[in-house]
Every structure is written in structure tokens, then in C-alpha cells.
Amino acid sequence: MENHSSCPMKIETGDAGYVLEDVPHLTDYIPNLPTYPNPLRSNPAYSVVKQYFVDADDTVPQKVVVHKDGPRGIHFRRAGPRQRVQFLLLPIIRLILVFAKGGPSLLQVYFAPDEVHACIVTCGGLCPGLNTVIREIVCALYHMYGVTKVLGIDGGYRGFYSKNTITLTPKFVNDIHKRGGTIIGTSRGGHDKPKIVDSIQDRGINQVYIIGGDGTQKGAAVIYQEIRRRGLKAVVAGIPKTIDNDIPVIDRSFGFDTAVEEAQRAINAAHVEAESAENGIGVVKLMGRYCGFIAMYATLASRDVDLCLIPESPFYLEGEGGLLEYVEKRLKDNGHMVIVVAEGAGQELLAAESLSSATAQDASGNKLLQDVGLWISDKIKAHFAKQQSMPITLKYIDPTYMIRAVPSNASDNVYCTLLAQSCVHGVMAGYTGFTSGLVNGRQTYIPFNRITEKQNNVVITDRMWARLLSSTNQPSFLGPKDVIEVQKQEEPPAQTQLLDGENSKTADN
Questions:
Q1: Is 19 helix (H, G, I), strand (E, B) or coil?
Q2: If you average pLDDT over residues 193-201, what whole number do you get?
């Protein structure tokens, strides 16, 4: 996919080191756009809410823990429905006070409801909550803003030019949040910028909602740039979707809570199997291609896990202090053990033994992984088969596709609703080229390039990983030189260092 960073970021600075990384707006490249009264001012559901509308100057800091003499740091634009203060005649002010309960303000949007032609597309792998996000975008457009033309793009990015669309209405999406998957289909790859933007232009679509992971958001950034180059009045907005929780900046991605909760079922089953047999071992493989957040949080939540392996923390099998030695010691002490391994852990060890290509990729550009759970299981079995003095019973459980196919739980359903509604508010206000996300507990609009510039990873020199090590009592498998090297790679700027590190984004101290 081509470079998507050609458009410069909008930066505003202020006193005490304040920096706003702002998102683009339609008025940046289309002058003299008309505005329209915001339909929310006459919506009875919001007439009783005090200060429902977000002030134009509201921003959210990326980091909330700083030194007293340090800079205020990076901020993002706060999400929500917008308003603008204008001078009005007194009788009109009174009318608005009674009608909107929002004060003497002229509420504005950049789209008239009857001119909006919106579309929604889901890309990449499945994730709990996809249907909830689709449902809430549709319902927010219909019930909050009076928009009646919403299309679902069938089958991911390639659906723009190779498949039919699906008409989405509140009735059609009413109960889809109770089902897993995505009702409009998904696929990997298929990003053809000219064909996609031609389809958007030919269909008269002026709002594009794109739900997907970092690769999908990179594609969304490219689409936004082409729409801007053509001067189209069309907004592109993203909602970050990755079950692995590997998208940076945001507190967490939707579906993550559900994944951790569902992983407990597999870990509990592995524990029952292991505890019921002499020298029983339960091995559970969880999702986590490049990061181990699901494995780490599922392990901490379970308290039945004796060993957790993630991509960020290297390990070795043989020799003193190795994995096999620890497994043997744990069995002698407890008589059973449970191992949780993220799918991306130990891939360098598998690659060293395998003749298959280590550079093979799927349609989204993700590295194709070998089955580390099966590999570790075979290595453990072979190790104890040589000894003969300690027979083991090992059960391997791989629930990955079961976990990602379930409906979202209550927590993720609420989160998906907030993401979707915030995204719609931003689009109707004319913002574009942004992703809707939660930062320090506040809904924000984040520029595409901040979402796609790097991946979020578990920091193994952080307190959260130390909590896991103390819970499982496993060794870190790191030598003194390894620790120093990792600390060099992960050391943040001194003045903005978080007290509890990056792993604390989804948990309190």
C-alpha cells in the first residue's frame, strides 16, 4: 500500500508546552461550506442533558501523568456534537433556551440530513463488537441526525467495486448486536484506491465509515487523501478494530474485553484437565500476533496459569533457566501446570527449525505464523519422553477462532456504542481523516497517522508485566544483558514518563 503520510498534520501549540494534534476538516480544502442547524437541538432524548454539546476548544491529553515542571504534552480533539456561539436577538435566544436546553448557541453541522449518503465497511479479521458498531452508526445517523440513506459495503474494501451493497436501516440492524461476526461481510486486502474512490464518487457517497485494524486505517488514510485531492465533499472516518489491542494511543480497542473474558473458558478447561491427571499440563494458545495483551490479561484474570509466553518476551527451551527446566520444576512442586501462549510468541525459534518461508504474508500483509502452541506441546512431550521417569498428560486447546466469533459482552457493547456515536458526531461536524478512540477515558478524534505510525506492545520492563511474573512465579527468561537492551529500547522521554508504563492503559494502578 502506498505511503499515506504526505498530508502534514495540523499542529497547534499553546502555553506550557501544550500541543494539539488536530484532525482535518472539510473547510481545510473546500471553502465557504454552508452549515445547518444541528437536529440534536430538537431531539427530546437530549433536551434534558446539561452541557451535552462539546466546546470547540475541548481537548484531551495523551498522557495524564507528567512532572510538575514538564510540558503539558500532546492533546487530541475531544469527540462529541459541536456548537458555535453567535450573537442572536434576545427573542431568538429565549426560543433556543426553551427548545434545546443548550444555552444561547447556534448548533451547527456541515451536512443537511437529506443530503447525506453514508456507507459502512468492515475489513480484516473478525472481532467481537463489529455488529454493535454497525448498528450504532446506523441508529445514530437515523435517530440523532435524521439521515435515511446508509449503505453497507459487502465484503471489505473490494466490495466498493466488485460486490453489491446492503441497505441498512434501524429495523434491519435492530438485533444484530446479539450475533458475532459482521452482517456486511469482511475480507483482507482488496485496497484499490482509484476504484474505491471512483465508486464513492459515482454513488454519491459523502460519509465513509471504515472499521478495521492498523492496515485498514492505513487504507482509510489513503482514501481520505485521494478524496481531498479530488476536492470531494466526502468525509472519511475510522473506528479502530483489533482484538489484539495493538493499536497505539487509544486506551483499548473494542472486542478486547470480550476476548479476555472468553479466554477464561479455555484456561479453566485446561486447568481442569491438568489438575485431573498425574503430571497434567494444559496448553492454551490465544490471539496475539505481534503483542501479548490478551494472553497477559487473561493470565492475570485467571490466576490458574503457571507460564505465560508472549511475542515481546523472548524465551529459550533447553539448558539452565530454560522453559523445559521450569516446566519440570513446576510439575514436581504442584503436580500439574497451565501454559498460556500468544500465537506470535517464539516464532523466531520455530523459524530456525522450519524450512518454510519466514516472510510469507496474508492478503493484509500480516506475517503468516506457525502454530507455536502445537510446537511447544511437542517439545514438552519429547522432553519428558526422554526422561521416562516422569510420564505426563498434555492437553492442547486452541480457542482462537471461537473467541473472535462470539458477540461482544456488556462492557464492549457500551464501548462500541460510544465509539460509533462519537464518530458520527465528528463526521456531521465536518471532521475527516480521523479515527474515533478512547484516550484517558475520554472520546477523542485522532489523526490517522498517529494510529498507524507504530503498534502497541506489552512493555516487559513495566509494572503490569511484573505483576504477571509475580502471579505465575515464572522466570523472565531474560539475562542481565537482555534486560539492559530492552530498557534502552523502551525508555520513554524522562519528562513525560508514565508512573505505571504503557501497559496500564487498560487498568488502574
A1: strand
A2: 96
